Amino acid sequence: MADPSPHLSSTPPDRKAASGVAGRKFMAAFLLGAVAVVLSWVALIAGQLGNAHLDNVWVKEAYALKFAAAEKLRGQRKVLAVGGSATMFGVDSQQLALGLGLPVVNLGVNAGIGSYEVPAQVDRWIEPGDVVVMPLEYRLLLWDGVPSYVTLSWALEHPEALARWQLKTAFWGLLTLPLERVMQGYLGFDLLSLPKGPYGAHKLNALGDQQHTSAQERSVEKLRALAQLPPERYDELYAQSVVGLTAWQHWWARWRSRGACLVVVPPPFMTVPAYNTAAYTAFFDAVPNRVTALGVPYLGHPSDGFFPLEAMFDTNYHLTAESRATYTQWLTDALRASDLNCLP
To answer: To pair with 140 at 20 to 30 A between CA atoms, which of 1, 180, 266, 292?
Structure first.
């Protein structure tokens, strides 16, 4: 005979229905709350877009000086050194001009503003017949689309840059942008009271090269900090990345159609034993082919830009003045020996 008693594990239908309704209400409330938080965050960001921030002062001042130098050569054939601060510290414009027989302007400023922005900043200065030499830092050339704080801070002040962003960059920007930086965007600052830092127009010569970078001017603390820098993770992050190359490909096509002569060269870079692994060797070996596959020449091999610790000034991309002369001589010889057919 069947047991007439109810099963203890069974749940009355009305209780099941109530539980399902409660679950759906909770999920709906959670989603609405999440949407409200995201919209509030976006609104908070939007409210200070375009406001000046002290992060960007030195970059804007440096670009202003360099663009004024390029303007003086408007309509003339010239060499434009394009990149980040590796270019600013690494290229001696006067030495390169003497070696190539063309005037040179150093347009390198800060790789941190990103692969979307560096070429966009220099675009209007590139004219038919110009030789555009690009010692691009590896992150700047091969970026994976994840923005750094510097990239984000620049974009907040220059919201027109956001139109060039891929969805991946926008997503990571919303996710990683510090609240402190957003709130600072609402606060003004007194430009006249800002202390002069190690970078900016006050540290550049008339052609845009960084000055006061001799080994003698490098402090013991800077040298010690250089020795303690951890190895980069480029072989993990950028061996397959395409965002940076895609951005550069757009501008390269634009400049070539304008009649400019383009060439990518190894940036000056501090090498360490950790870069002798098989993964890193494969990474560096692949860089020239990744560039030339997009129709732009690459001179030499990344190792041509390798320098020891003692050659660096204050970062793993910033040469001392003495090593800048060595790098610029290599650059002159490489350009002279190339088959670019765009030098006098």
So the answer is: 180
